[in-house]
């Protein structure tokens, strides 16, 4: 019998249409059944240029399963090019055409001479979830659109973070990372969000190095770019939240880029001074031991689970209960991520479980002794279980139901302060 | 599994008729991948029964400019319903084109539609192969449940 997965926190790879949507003036063309796109379209926020989730789709049906959907795909691409004014067209394939064996690559290659680029990403659901789909789209850009650049722009750094829209804070986070990197005197280059787009994509091969801030998403793409363009990459597994990790992050980036150490330290000092000024002003709040919970659990994808655990232990001095990574991290990366969870200040080690089944996670939360009421940072699924335990809950990962985020962020020094504000807002409100 | 396929063809060699144009459906019976010609089903008389229908407006409205088609053989919604009725015992209908009205009515009767042009033998071969695959799968999954 097939197994049931309760409360999963990701979508199928075709969910990568969100990744395409995050690139300004890029349009997904879906080669899938009409229901696929509709099911995947519940996320909030549009691209700012196209309507959200109204995309050209081949809407293939039973007839195309038997006789192939290649003709339909060809006419859909042809007409999308005529009707929709975009800079980049990305054909995404669903499960059906890939099982049937439609040669999408061949159809797309007919548009190689088109003045606007048309590329394709195989995003069949059986190949993985939307984290994998995101990688497929970026891979497609690297493989099918970009060419090796002979010239390099001094100080140019491509920054890559986690999956747009799946990560609630993606836009704010990547802008804050840009800001931090530019303070070191480097020139950041990102492809997602406002005023980024094809021009930034074209600049990718000219970069001096790639900076990947993610436990695992995008690592294979970095390796690909290293092979194809000869661009080295720096892999920062931890999303830097708060002073401890952000200072580590800046030192690491500074060292890799060969930035003057004094310069790096002066940037760090300025930020840390303000950060600790804020913390000290509210020291009475932090020292009041009834306010905040003794132990916490994060239920999120690898980047937030790791990033927030490090922040809460290293900066706020809380004790981790079991942490859950829910993004179905590929087995090859699990060991290195588990090691990172053991690498915390004060010799503290966090236990981590790579679990995708919401029921099992909730059972573990219920059965754990938090020495008081728990603090749970997770998806909306955790709200009810936390409330039943009389605990404090903050919605920080997908699915998000009780929060609207435009460009808020948790990354960096300022992001750490934002997260403290959010956690303590929840914590103090229980005494009102 | 025993099932029937209705084909819209003027010469029996090529699928070349739209659903509305068909006067005689060629009905094939398939049993375990083997296909045999079962009958030529005359659907003309269904049309006459439609004409006696009191709802004349449909017939006048359609056929010329009522729908986007050229109206070849289309006599409006009542005609569609009776024609769909005539093939409702079939698993699928194979025609050059099937109009929107007919598609919806066929879906209600759980009759699949293959709107495709070409050689009857080649098309049927693919469809029969496809159905054989799903039937086999269904049989297997049922066996697994029983185990």
Mean pLDDT of chain A: 93
Please give the alpha-carbon distance between the first and last residues of chain B. Answer: 22 Å
Return the CATH architecture of chain B. 2-Layer Sandwich
Overall outline of chain B: globular
Spatial strand sequence of the major β-sheet of chain B: 4-3-1-5-6
CATH class of the domain at 273-429 in chain A, please?
A: Alpha Beta
Oligomeric nature of the chains = heterodimer
CATH superfamily placement of the domain at 273-429 in chain A: Nitrogenase molybdenum iron protein domain
The helix content of chain A is 40-55%
- CATH T-level topology of chain B: Nucleotidyltransferase, domain 5
Please give the number of β-strands of chain A. 13
Cα separation of the termini of chain A: 50 Å
Spans of at least 5 consecutive residues with low confidence of chain B? 47-66
- Determine the strand fraction of chain A and express it as a percent band: 5-15%
* CATH fold-level label of the domain at 273-429 in chain A: Rossmann fold
Q: What is the count of β-strands of chain B?
A: 7
Helix content range of chain B: 40-55%
The description of the largest β-sheet of chain A is: 6 strands, parallel
